[in-house]
Task: structure prediction
Amino acid sequence: MAKKKKGEDKNMGKVAIYPGSFDPITYGHIDIVERALEIFDKVIIAIAENAEKRPLFSVEERLQMVRTLFKDTPNVLADSFKGLLVNYVAKTNAKVILRGLRATSDFEYEFHMASMNRSLNTHLDTLFMMTSKDYFFVSSRTIKEVTKLGGGVEGLVPDLVARRLKEKFKLPITKKRQISWDD
Ligand code: PNS
Result:
């Protein structure tokens, strides 16, 4: 029997692959996924295994965070891939690569990547979604830097991610103060 493609199921509907490093996932990424679910039936968050980028979190750690955060959203899957993105996408039922765009500064890099991917596989398109205004300045890189230097990233990443970051940087994890009526 021929090997089934990921998502090769007539009921899967429209599938988008959302690739990235997700080192770690932020509310900017989550916002893109949530909005994409208005357009697509399924979103696959595809974490790139790229040792050259020297990620802070292992692929397993990143997958675990993403899977925990979307555990109640069955139409969001998390996966990882090595090598060319187009080869990974070809193994799925998806025709669309989804990327978030924060600012014009992202555009050149994204334009090159989308053009290269399109030249490698003309059946694939990249769909860009503008990042919501609340997350325009949020990137995994700055989130890591700010946490490492002791700054707060509440509201920019889920609590789970903030905790994992502090564990990585061996920073104290302060419990939220419980406010009671007796205070
Ligand atoms: O979150 P990032 O780091 O901006 O994501 C970049 C990513 C992982 C999507 C990109 O580097 C990628 O697709 N890597 C896989 C290798 C590949 O296909 N390279 C050719 C694209 S030009």
Q: What stands out?
A: The chain has six helices and five strands. The radius of gyration is 18 Å. Residues 19-21, 48, 84-85, 113, 116-117 surround 4'-phosphopantetheine (CB under 6 Å).
